[in-house]
Write a structure and sequence with these properties.
globular; four-stranded parallel β-sheet; Alpha-Beta Plaits; Rossmann fold; 3 domains; Elongation Factor Tu (Ef-tu), domain 3; six-stranded antiparallel β-sheet; 28% helix; alpha+beta
Length: 384
């Protein structure tokens, strides 16, 4: 799971995450609905053909409007949202959700939402609304699946497993966007959301093989997610951690082993994989090998950077490079003292290595250092 900021100033984080992920969850505020930056991120996901789910968050806040947010997803984003949950209450009274697939309700204890929850029968006062939206769900899914449509029109019983499989197929084909809800801060709705990720979003085997170009012949090459295939990996992010360069890579095909040499066809040189790390938030676990479908951290790459491909020299390939927007705002910066100039240069080099949308130049007339970024907030975060 890769968490990205939603603010438009940090669009590069979203761009490179969507480039390497197989599925995404759009998180929307139940009060604010679809924001302008939500539209920008949604268009980025469209460009990379990423299947999505939607999570309507902050259902416990004053002014929360689940159905209004779902309507906004439909009208503003041009998506086809399909509610697979209904909230039980809202604002201060938000206490659970109704699962429209299993027709069960899930309730959380206010004092211990982290406890495992057990689905229970729907309370009589919610049954009418649940039945109404269950029909809407069946109608929406029947439009994407002939087998479900046949049963729906014949008024036959549709098993939960059949419905789940149909929703998964429609989600992967980007025909629908399943919608869930909750309150992340209070851990309400997160367990069903993670279950839905497993049920509805694709694995590497469910999506088309990645395409690449042979650097010498220009031939288009296809790489299915086969651990026994030729190594094909994309570097999508670089960070400097404790003075060391940590590169993040998505492996599309083949395997990489710690200690071996790999080839960068863009630089036409070999690089050594000193260590391979399995990342979990700020925790890092050394592993001896990573295979197709994995996203890992790599220590030891000296010259390779964001957007470049790693492979073996006997199977060279260029994966499509990531393109970024040009900076839109610039400020002049200077060190506090002359002695700080070297430190400033080192820090700016580190920042530009990590963030391709950040540009540093020097004004020839004034001699000032010019820092350019994607917005005021972007530059404020860098300067602070």
């Amino acid at each position: 799971i890769i968490d990205t900021p939603g603010h438009v100033d940090f669009t590069v984080e979203v761009e490179r995450a969507l480039r390497v992920l197989d599925g995404a969850i759009g998180v929307f505020c139940a009060v604010g609905g679809v924001q302008p930056q939500s539209e920008t991120v949604w268009r980025q996901a469209d460009r990379y053909h990423v299947p999505r789910m939607a999570f309507v968050n902050k259902m416990d806040r004053i002014g929360a409007d689940f159905f209004g947010t779902v309507d906004a997803i439909r009208t503003k984003l041009g998506a086809n949202p399909v509610m697979i949950q209904l909230p039980i209450g809202s604002e201060d009274h938000f206490s659970g959700v109704i699962d429209l697939l299993a027709m069960k309700q899930i309730m959380w204890k206010e004092d211990s939402p982290d406890e495992d929850v057990t689905p229970e029968d729907i309370s009589p006062e919610y049954m009418e609304q649940a039945s109404e939206y269950r029909e809407i769900l069946l109608e929406a899914i029947s439009e994407t699946d002939d087998a479900i449509m046949e049963k729906y029109l014949s008024e036959e019983s549709i098993e939960t497993a059949e419905l789940t499989a149909a929703i998964r197929r429609a989600t992967i084909q980007r025909q629908i966007v399943p919608v869930l809800c909750g309150s992340a801060l209070k851990n309400k709705g997160i367990q069903p959301l993670l279950d839905a990720v497993e049920r509805f979003l694709p694995s590497p085997l469910d999506i088309p093989p990645v395409q690449g170009i042979h650097p010498d012949t220009g031939e288009t090459l296809s790489f299915p997610p086969d651990p026994n295939g030729p190594l094909t990996a994309l570097l999508f992010k670089v960070s400097m951690i404790e003075g060391r360069k940590l590169s993040f890579a998505r492996i599309y095909s083949g395997c990489m082993n710690a200690g071996e040499d790999v080839y960068n066809p863009f630089l036409k040189q070999k690089e050594k994989l000193s260590r391979i790390l399995l990342m979990h938030a700020n925790k890092r676990e050394r592993i001896p090998q990573a295979a197709a479908g994995d996203i890992v951290g790599i220590v030891g790459l000296k010259d390779s950077t964001t957007g470049e491909t790693l492979c073996f020299q006997d199977h060279p390939v260029f994966l499509e490079k990531m393109e970024y927007e040009e900076p839109v705002i610039s400020i002049a910066i200077e060190p506090k003292t002359h002695d700080d100039q070297t430190k400033l240069d080192d820090v700016l080099t580190k920042f530009t290595l990590e963030d391709p949308t950040l540009k540093v130049s020097r004004d020839e007339e004034t001699g000032q250092i010019i820092l350019s970024g994607m917005g005021e907030l972007h530059l404020e975060v860098i300067i602070s």
